[in-house]
Amino acid sequence: MGKQYSMDVSKFLIAPGKKISLKDYDTEYHEDEIDKSQGEELLALSREKLSELQDRLYAHNQYSVLIIFQAMDTAGKDGAIKHIMSGLNPSGVTVTSFKVPSATELEHDYFWRHYNALPVRGDIGIFNRSHYENVLVTKVHPELILKENLPEINSIEDINEKFWENRYKQIKRFEKNLSQNGTIILKFFLHLSKKEQKKRFIQRIDDPKKNWKFSTSDSKERQFWNDYQTAYEQAISNTSTEYAPWFIIPADDKWYTRLAIAEILYKHFSELKLEYPVLTEEQKAELEKVKEGLLAEN
């Protein structure tokens, strides 16, 4: 590939407290350092590096990793999870896709179903959609909040700006608690253009193998595109922190989306300084005794 390529992943990071407008962020790959075939080669290398770090994460047994994906429909969350995580040991990775809350889930606070899906120490958990749906889809459709049966929320008029500010604070408290107890949190917004979403919707309709992916509800939600963009801007602006940062990733070019996410994961995994446990001299001596016994067997 000629000179070694090193992606500057800091350009995707949203600094704590920064108020963003999604119009200021690219949805396409505009640079010319690499092309698609080179990007796929680099992704394969990143998967290998992540696999080694996953092994160390498990052996180190002090941290868990929570990766959150949020995006508009067709942005490529499923594909990113499949391609980036394919090189990892599946026994140490759990993917949870959150749908519309069930009746049982609505009888608990909105973190309950997410808390139950968190990864244990040494493991990686992936949330395909997450607790952020409670400040995204519910903000676009505030009538959904009424189903939560919350105190003092009796009508849509009760769901005001103070209500949303409190939700952002609740989310930050939730994530800070996880972080302080050893969970590394990385949050990705896959930034798709409305034009590209239209193209992908049509592809799903035209391709019999992809028909099952298309739902008429998807096209209905597209009518609220601007409302969703605003909801994402406010959620990201209010909840990107040092302990649970947001990254805005261009999503119109799938190969670049996947590479950018993999590079960010590798960088943050590397910063953990994960090490294999070091045995004491007594433990080493015990292993030698076991080895001698094995060698002495007929």
Structure characteristics:
298 residues; alpha/beta; six-stranded mixed beta sheet
List the helices and strands and how they pair.
Layout: E1 13-14, H1 36-60, E2 64-71, H2 77-85, E3 93-97, H3 103-106, H4 112-115, E4 124-128, H5 137-140, H6 161-180, E5 183-191, H7 194-206, H8 216-222, H9 225-239, E6 246-250, H10 254-271, H11 281-295
Parallel strand pairs: 2-4, 2-5, 3-4, 5-6
Antiparallel strand pairs: 1-6
Helix pairs in contact: 1-10, 2-10
Can you describe what's shown?
There is one protein chain. By secondary structure, the protein is of the alpha/beta class. Helix content is 45%, strand content 11%. It has eleven helices and six strands. The chain has helices spanning 36-60, 77-85, 103-106, 112-115, 137-140, 161-180, 194-206, 216-222, 225-239, 254-271, 281-295, and strands at 13-14, 64-71, 93-97, 124-128, 183-191, 246-250. The longest helix is centred in the first third of the chain and has 25 residues, at 36-60. The mean pLDDT is 93.
